[in-house]
Target: Heavy metal translocating P-type ATPase
Amino acid sequence: MSSPTTAPLAPNLASAAAFADPSDARSAGRALASSSSIPTDSTDCFHCGQPLKAGAPFVAQIEGQARTFCCGGCQTLAQTLHAAGFGHLYGDITRFARPIDADARREAEPVWAAYDTPELRSQFVRQAGDGRSEVTLAPENIRCAACAWLIEQHLGQLDGVESVVANVATRRVVVRWRDASQGVADLLSSLADIGYAAWPFEVSRSDQQDRRERRGLLMRMAVAMLGMMQAMMYAWPLYTHEATIDPGQLQLMRWASFALTIPVVFYSAWPIFAGAWRSLRHRHMGMDVPVAIGVAAGFLASAVATARGVGEVYFDSVTMFVAFLLLARYLELRVRQASRSGAEMLARQLPATCERLAQAGGAGERVPVARLQPGDRIRVKAGEIVPADGVVLAGASELDESMLTGEARPVRRVAGDTVLAGCFNAASPLEIHIERIGAQTRLAEIVAVLDRALADKPRLAQVADRVAGWFVGTLLIMAVVTGAVWALWIDPSRALLVTVAVLVVSCPCALSLATPAALAAAGAALSRRGLLLTRAHALEALARVTDVVLDKTGTLTEGRFALVSTQTFGALDAQACRRLAAAMERGGEHPIARALAESCDLAGADTDHPTVSDLRNVPGQGLDASVDGCRLRLGRREYAAALSSSANTDECGHESLPGATEVWLGDARGLLACFQLADVERDQTRALLRALGALGVRCHLVSGDGVAAVRWWADRFGMRTAFGAVTPEGKREYVAALQQRGAVVLAVGDGINDAPVLAQAQVSIAIGSGAPLAQAGADAVLTHGGVAEIATAIKAARRARRVVRQNLGWAFAYNVVAIPLAATGHVTAWMAGIGMSVSSLLVVANAWRLLRIRATAREGAPLSAPESLPQGREGEL
Model:
């Protein structure tokens, strides 16, 4: 028997755009239901409605009529449904299959085409290189893994589309394609063909859709709750005093329950039927299928019993089940909307309008931010948010960049400085030249990285999706077998009720949501702490990390020089020597020159700077200048001492710091001072190492710096394993050696020379301030926050792994226990509805706990005492 899930998609698929008018749908359903038969020469498949393939079709007798099918999977499924007594669904559900109305498509096409105009395209489409484009779409009505599979398969068949990844938890679809082959309009039109209204993801429109979705679901749930309470009111006398109630009154209460259940089934449960029909039509079992069958069977059987005046009615169970199911979906919706990334939450704060200037200092006009173009000049007043990336042309102000960089203090920006979208102007007006807008801004890049990471499906999620699809198919077979056994051998009067209970009590949604809900919540929590996951497997790998390989410069240290020691040898004190050095180095571009000038300026900020003239730079040696009329040299020891013919440099003894760079100051009398500059330790380095030790993770310091310098830093940090003078290839080989011994390695770095080791490790994190090449190859990027967040990420990943296992364990255990109880008649339909809803809620609530992730260690926590280091040699491990 061929599998329905592997059958190819047909090109002309039905659209949900036609579902808007239920009255028209019901009329079409009645007309189709009145048809007595479908001839065997029909050109469409009886089950899915797709055109029959060339060659002999599959033919089977259904209710005494010869029906044609496009494949064995459709034939088998149709026979199974009819054998279970659900053949009437083909007459009722046909109303969902109306094609898109021609007028509606003509009305929508100009809207779709607008997204391919240069103005809107720059807002939503990202360039992925090599003539490829990428866009994030936000389709409606994604309910389960079957929906995601259908979208991926359908869009993946379009010419030029290279990858499609749909995520159930975030309801985002990331599509990458070759520019010449498709446009955004083609993608949106193609999604509409299979019943999913969609648009390019936009924060403001996403907000509107969130509110509209909440209102719609609340309205459906309110109708279901009201119908449930009223139906229970009429059902209660039937349960308790049926024998004493007048038959006429009894029948009146049944008709009242029927009338109250109609809006629950045809309005509140409408999305369930629509989702089930999409799954059946495209031969992929989604979690709405058994639910829709259970609701339809319970309602129709009760309606027939009411019309005949004989038999049991289950209106109360149907309404209660729909109400509880919608409650579970509403809570799930709130969790998903609460799992927004920190960057997306920031994007919601971007202004809708800004002040655009026609000329410098002139009057401005308020225009929508969407109309800005690169090259425009805008004014951002105090208290406003920068709407796009650009360069300051005029003015000076303090900007709050904390949400982008993690820097808590406002940063001063003056003419010539770069400013980013999302920064808050805290002080004075700025005139800004726009350079990047929309999808090209740094903020949009961060959101895109998160979308790609959330859209990618890790191995565990893929397995869960496959299991959920298999589970639904198995459940339908079990329901058929259960109904047949009860009808033939146990109690025919209860066969339908037991069958409905089996369909309803199962919880495939818990299986489908168990993994993506937990991963989405953990990823959102980490993004708010400054760690962006860029690869799907990052969380899984982080949970298994046993060893962390750390670079020194830019990772454990800030990668910038600072003055750590001043030793004097002449008549001048340390402050006077620093003032002279700062005067000579002021304006220099070398990192050491800038560090020396900045450090010395701090010491003499309140005094006048000396006058420097005749400044000369001697490559490889240092500076020679006249300072306040006195000739000075600043640079290498021998160079500074050579200004005095009588100076004996050996007499100037000093204490050398390993890893420090020495800069000497001398005049005609001899050496005056030795300035020692060293890299600056990151604030949270010690907290990171202590937290990793507490997690049982082994730390390795592998750096390209000299052996002595690396040993000094390792002693300072208390690290057991450290190697210096290691080449980029040597770092990669070191990680490979650890992996051969069974280690799961996390590599952390920031430079281009770290790219090989980041690629070799099972999981890697790049420091956000580092080289773009390192960030591009990393599985996660630390955009802001302290390095201690690396340990927090490992802890969060382990917690997420536990939550996923708990969710999957609960989902399997619940179904293993609940389905046999329902099959043996111990669970009624309304009890099954509560059980299914509670099961889904537990899975979602358990994942929700991951949104609250705490730091693993406090900054500045003490480290254990340093231990002996392995002896390394220059250039070797």
About this structure: Residues 389 and 420 are 4 Å apart (CA to CA).
